[in-house]
Automatic annotation (TrEMBL):
It holds the Pfam family MDD_C. This is Diphosphomevalonate decarboxylase. Gene3D superfamilies: 3.30.230.10, GHMP kinase, C-terminal domain. Residues 16-182 form the Diphosphomevalonate decarboxylase-like N-terminal domain. It comes from the Eukaryota. One of its GO terms (molecular function) is diphosphomevalonate decarboxylase activity. The gene is LOC111133348. It catalyses: (R)-5-diphosphomevalonate + ATP = isopentenyl diphosphate + ADP + phosphate + CO2. It is an enzyme of class 4 (lyase). Keywords: ATP-binding, Cholesterol biosynthesis, Cholesterol metabolism, Lipid biosynthesis, Lipid metabolism, Lyase, Nucleotide-binding, Steroid biosynthesis, Steroid metabolism, Sterol biosynthesis, Sterol metabolism. Catalyzes the ATP dependent decarboxylation of (R)-5-diphosphomevalonate to form isopentenyl diphosphate (IPP). Functions in the mevalonate (MVA) pathway leading to isopentenyl diphosphate (IPP), a key precursor for the biosynthesis of isoprenoids and sterol synthesis. InterPro entries: GHMP_kinase_C_sf, Mev_decarb, Mev_diP_decarb, MVD-like_N, Mvd1_C, Ribosomal_Su5_D2-typ_SF, Ribsml_uS5_D2-typ_fold_subgr.
């Protein structure tokens, strides 16, 4: 085999996960991935959850190849192809007189991507994965400008992972999707004491994927049509709560939107159900905590799966962790991962107020303690996932799908 090092070029990038507060659910165009409603999300820190992607081109590569979490993937994925061809088109448009770039565009591409969290945890990774791929390709081909529109073609929610902090994906009006793109509302430093606890539930049921789930909702749910009329007002309200760091309102809008998404799922025919008994137990517990506190201390949000994303303020983390430990006891010394839990103030939780709720041992696999974070970044070459010959350094990880 020839040495590839002379011509090969490598770029490695990291990209974050985002969690929607006002959910995207339903498309008006399946191919271009244009949503029926705008959505708002918060991007999470990459210290706890991130996708990492190395992309490489070389005149010596024989064919385009891709590996995800150590497993080779087919390149015949329409969304993957759409992302690659759109980045290349943007590059051609801007650099048509540069021979070196034109060469690179002809060369075959190797892509290797990994998540720093277990695929089995059921945490959506496609948003971080596609945002990372688009960002890395843009650096490889020297493309700048709006990348969120291209990430959107991989997976709708991926367009929001192109930015850090709080992000809105404006649904846009144009038929071709030119104005359907993400935009930062405020950066990750805006609300420094906001924290997120991700409750990874033990029984990860096999559930309908979000693409199919939302498509069936569009076809069959009348409640979805009603939801669409109310979303613009909710977007304005949550933007205001974020700007003012008004946790009480932020929490209520977030919980109501999550509940509405899952009501739409139940109104879908046949119904789609993502929440398990444990998810419902978490919902009851959060409302009991808030009621006891006379104001919202915690908010939950659920995507197309049973895991809960809890939002709270740093000062309340020790109390809420105490309560979670009480209701979902675990002997795992690594039960709480991520950010350190701040030292306990002198709070005493009166568990008699929660007497309606059962204690459920081992209900949760683990909890990830994290916070809002920045958008994608370029990494040093020593973080790369490909050898100098363009093949994965690590081929024995768990499998996964982008
Ligand atoms: C419930 O972005 O995964 O997480 O565009 O078909 O790839 P596709 O769907 P996807 O849907 C995400 C749905 C959601 C809500 C959200 O993130 O806004």
């Amino acid at each position: 085999m020839d040495s590839f090092t002379d011509d090969a070029e490598f770029i490695t990038c990291d990209s974050p996960v985002n969690i929607a507060l006002i959910k995207y659910w339903g498309k008006r165009d399946e191919k271009l991935i244009l949503p029926l409603n705008s959505s708002i999300s918060v991007t999470l820190s990459q210290d706890e959850l991130r996708a990492r992607t190395t992309v490489a081109v070389s005149r010596n590569f024989k064919e385009d190849k891709m590996w995800l979490n150590g497993r080779e993937q087919s390149m015949k994925n329409a969304r993957l192809q759409s992302v690659i061809s759109n980045i290349k088109r943007l590059c051609r448009k801007r650099k048509s007189d540069n021979d070196q770039v034109n060469d690179k565009l002809q060369w075959k591409l190797h892509i290797c991507s990994e998540n720093n969290f277990p695929t089995a945890a059921g945490l959506a990774s496609s948003a971080a994965g596609y945002a990372c791929l688009v960002y890395a390709l843009s650096k490889l081909y020297g493309v700048d400008g709006d990348l969120s529109k291209i990430a959107r073609m991989g997976s709708g929610s991926a367009c929001r992972s192109i930015y850090g902090g709080f992000v809105i994906w404006n649904k846009g009006e144009a038929e071709g999707g030119e104005d359907s793109k993400a935009e930062q509302i405020v950066s990750e430093t805006h609300w420094p004491d906001l924290r997120v606890l991700i409750l990874v539930v033990s029984d990860q049921t096999k559930h309908t994927g979000s693409t199919v789930g939302m498509q069936t909702s569009v076809e069959t749910s009348q409640l979805l049509q009603q939801r669409l009329q109310g979303v613009p007002k909710q977007l304005e309200k949550i933007k205001c709560a974020i700007q003012n760091k008004d946790f009480h309102s932020f929490a209520e809008i977030t919980m109501r939107d999550s509940n509405q998404l899952h009501a739409v799922c139940m109104d879908t025919y046949p119904p789609v159900s993502y929440l398990t008994d444990i998810s419902h137990h978490i919902i009851q517990l959060v409302h009991a905590i808030n009621q006891d506190n006379n104001s919202n201390m915690v908010a939950y949000s659920f995507d197309a799966g049973p895991n809960a994303f809890l939002f709270l303020q740093e000062k309340d983390v020790p109390t809420v962790i105490d309560i979670l430990h009480y209701f979902y006891p675990s002997s795992d010394p690594n039960f709480i991962r991520g950010l350190q839990v701040p030292a306990k103030r002198d709070v005493h939780v009166d568990y008699t107020v929660f007497s309606d709720l059962k204690v459920i041992p081992r209900a949760l696999k683990f909890i990830i303690h994290t916070q809002p974070g920045p958008g994608p970044t370029v990494k040093d070459s020593d973080c790369g996932l490909l050898t100098k010959d363009g093949f994965p350094l690590n081929l024995n990880n768990a499998n996964g799908k982008i």
